[in-house]
Amino acid sequence: NIAMAAQMTDAHRRFLQVLMSHGIMEGSEARKLHRCCCEIHKVYYAHDKLDDFISTINSHLQPLFMQIRKGMSEDDGRAHYALVNLAETEVTKMASDYTENELELFRKTMDLIISSENGFASSTDILNLADQLKTKKMKKKEAEQVLKVFVEDRWLSERNGEYTLHTRCIIEMEQYILSNYQDVARKCNICHSLAIQSQVCESCGIGMHLPCVRKYFRTQTEPRCPQCNDFWSCDIP
């Protein structure tokens, strides 16, 4: 049975191809795709076995230094799946799609987002960096266009002129961000994955994703920090 479970079937291959063409997929879409692939190729299907199904694919992707990773949307806490290249640092991987000064703008945007208190950077602050690029200065109009492309390619998300890292970017760049921003990047105290948009305890400094904050304090009459037990002073979302 174990040998059978580890076998890669056409259902696994189809799932991988569709995920590759999407880049990232929301959990409910991935579950639908899992079912669809199993039905088309007449392979055993169980609705609660998606993670096992993906583990089989991952065992075959390992020699290629690739992996399907599961992550969480910082907006609503929903699971997402993305295909990640482990062989290259993620910013190098982006180099095949963007010019050097576009990449520099992305890095500077990422600096602003990660070092901010709420995980967002305003378009004004980002556009002010455009004429300070070392590689080649960028006109504001040009920079606006580049930001639009980063949003379309799902490296950034934009809401009312404020930019944050897209779920795809967080899943793919988690290790890069944790090792390159050691002073400011933090993991969520609840789910232990990288937290960009988070609330921070004023007493001990631990951070929590907003969906994790919501879930953790749902049943508590008085919100207290899970680490130091002091009163949680942030507004519960």
UniProtKB/TrEMBL annotation:
One GO term of the biological process aspect: double-strand break repair via homologous recombination
Pfam families tied to this protein: SMC_Nse1, zf-RING-like
Enzyme class: transferase
Every RING-type domain range: 188-229
Enzyme Commission numbers on file: 2.3.2.27
InterPro entries: Nse1, Nse1_RING_C4HC3-type, WH-like_DNA-bd_sf, Znf_RING, Znf_RING/FYVE/PHD
Entries under PROSITE patterns matching the protein: ZF_RING_2 (PS50089)
Catalysed transformations (reactions): S-ubiquitinyl-[E2 ubiquitin-conjugating enzyme]-L-cysteine + [acceptor protein]-L-lysine = [E2 ubiquitin-conjugating enzyme]-L-cysteine + N(6)-ubiquitinyl-[acceptor protein]-L-lysine
One GO CC term, this protein: chromosome, telomeric region
Subcellular location: Chromosome, Telomere; Nucleus
GO molecular function: ubiquitin protein ligase activity; zinc ion binding
Highest rank taxon of the organism: Eukaryota
UniProt-listed CDD domains: RING-CH-C4HC3_NSE1
Entry keyword set: Chromosome, DNA damage, DNA recombination, DNA repair, Metal-binding, Nucleus, Telomere, Transferase, Ubl conjugation pathway, Zinc, Zinc-finger
UniProt keyword annotation of Oxidoreductase present: no
Task performed by this protein: RING-type zinc finger-containing E3 ubiquitin ligase that assembles with melanoma antigen protein (MAGE) to catalyze the direct transfer of ubiquitin from E2 ubiquitin-conjugating enzyme to a specific substrate. Involved in maintenance of genome integrity, DNA damage response and DNA repair.
Classification via PANTHER family: NON-SMC ELEMENT 1-RELATED (PTHR20973), NON-STRUCTURAL MAINTENANCE OF CHROMOSOMES ELEMENT 1 HOMOLOG (PTHR20973:SF0)
Subunit record text: Component of the Smc5-Smc6 complex.
Family according to the record: Belongs to the NSE1 family.
Official protein name in the record: Non-structural maintenance of chromosomes element 1 homolog
Organism: Phaetusa simplex
Gene name for this UniProt entry: Nsmce1
